[in-house]
Specification:
Length: 430
């Protein structure tokens, strides 16, 4: 026999068509089992409620699906809020080989359109609900930009800022010489050294309370602790005076105010070779310099010293240069020009004086205070822990065994044997 719904050949006596699922029993009151929808095509729709014995119209007649598989094809049913499902009268497809395929495709197309419409409505709704991106307010950007600029400025700060800060620190003016550190004095000395002339150098030194308007040092002292525990007190002797090794003027020149150290000029009583060859010069360079604290030691700059390096002579060509970091003064540097008479050789006194007067120039600190070149001077009577007389680097021009020295009462015309132990007035420049 043939199925009255789909027209497919079926066996006699079976209750449902294996092709379309149509019921073949005379009792049509039983609904189609839900198990025929177990292929996952969705929930089983129910047919509209119909009166007993009514024949379904074209609008209510269920559509069919054609599946090539021999499994039962679910029957599409409408949904009804009440009443039981009933099977309607079959309606044959125009295509006996593919009954219901057109309606299936149409249904799928309608479903696809419906899904597209729902998706379109949903996306438009989401776009209306989702706020558009908001750009930061200009005020907020302006508030952030200065910080960024500040960070960038810090990152690009020149590497020499710490050096500039140290220079600024060194420029701070103190009330007196004793309040400055050696590092600060070294920086001030460099400024003075860079001056184009002595007048401007004095003005710079005066601005730091180191000298008066005439260039005379104030007389203040600085305590320096030596490595042996003794205290050396130094005072400013002059500014822009000594010649630096390599050119230019040393900004500051210092001398010791007291005499904690003593030494001889030579082991033997001779002045041959003068200051350049003396034991005193070697001792200052190799022993005394090492006794100074490191901050002062590193600040000292070597200078050129002019001295009679022959000994017994009245020829000024015997005055030559040495380079010294530590040294002791000459006759002329403490007393100024002399015009002594050598009783042992009066005829050559002029030559002897010329040699002594060629050994540098008098320091400003002594210009007004030293009034006697062959008598006592309080400014030259230095304090001592032992001997109060102190050596000068000047050789006695008339004899070969002596050097000049300053007596206990400050007379700069003393002379004595080179082997004698006397106080040492240390000089140095920054």
């Amino acid at each position: 026999m043939y199925c009255p719904y789909c027209g497919k050949p079926i066996d006699d006596g079976i209750p449902y068509c294996p092709w379309c699922g149509g019921g073949l029993r005379e009792d049509t009151s039983s609904p189609i089992p839900d198990s025929v929808f177990a292929d996952g095509h969705g929930p089983a729709p129910t047919a509209p409620a119909e009166a007993e014995g009514d024949t379904p119209t074209a609008e209510t007649r269920p559509a069919t699906q054609h599946i090539s598989s021999p499994k039962a094809v679910p029957l599409r049913r409408g949904s009804s809020r009440g009443g039981s499902s009933r099977r309607g009268t079959p309606r044959y497809s125009d295509d006996p080989d593919n009954s219901g395929a057109g309606r299936l495709l149409m249904g799928l197309a309608i479903a696809a359109c419906a899904l597209a419409a729902v998706f379109l409505v949903w996306t438009r709704g989401c776009s209306r609900l989702s706020p558009a991106p908001v750009e930061p307010a200009p005020a907020e950007q302006e508030a952030v930009e200065p910080e960024a600029q500040e960070s960038q400025a810090e990152a690009e700060a020149p590497e020499d800022e710490p050096a500039e800060q140290e220079a600024t620190e060194a420029d701070k003016v103190k009330a007196s010489l004793a309040e400055y550190t050696w590092e600060e004095l070294s920086a001030i000395s460099a400024k003075i050294s860079a001056a184009p002339n002595r007048d401007e150098a004095i003005a710079i030194a005066q601005s730091y309370n180191l000298v008066d308007a005439a260039g005379t040092p104030t007389g203040d002292t600085i305590a320096v602790t030596l490595s042996d525990g003794s205290t050396l007190r130094v005072f400013l002797a002059d500014v822009y005076h000594d010649d630096l090794v390599g050119g230019g003027k040393a900004g500051l020149t210092f001398l010791s105010w007291n005499l904690p150290l003593s030494h001889r000029m030579n082991a033997d009583d001779t002045n041959m070779g003068g200051w350049a060859s003396s034991e005193m010069r070697s001792w200052l360079a190799n022993t005394a310099l090492g006794m100074l604290p490191n901050d002062l030691h590193t600040a000292i700059r070597p200078v050129i010293k002019m001295t009679n390096n022959t000994g017994n002579t009245h020829d000024t060509t015997s005055v030559t240069m040495t380079e010294d970091s530590l040294w002791i003064p000459s006759v002329n540097e403490v007393a100024g020009d002399v015009s002594w008479v050598w009783s042992s050789d009066a005829d050559n006194s002029g030559g002897y004086n010329a040699v002594l007067n060629a050994e540098g120039d008098q320091y400003a600190v002594f210009a007004q205070s030293v009034t006697e070149t062959d008598g006592p001077n309080a400014a030259l009577a230095l304090r001592s822990d032992g001997s109060s007389s102190w050596w000068l680097r000047t050789s006695s021009a008339s004899v070969t065994s002596n050097y000049r020295y300053v007596t206990e009462d400050g007379n700069p015309c003393g002379f004595g044997n080179a082997s004698g132990e006397r106080g040492v007035c240390i000089g140095f420049c920054l």
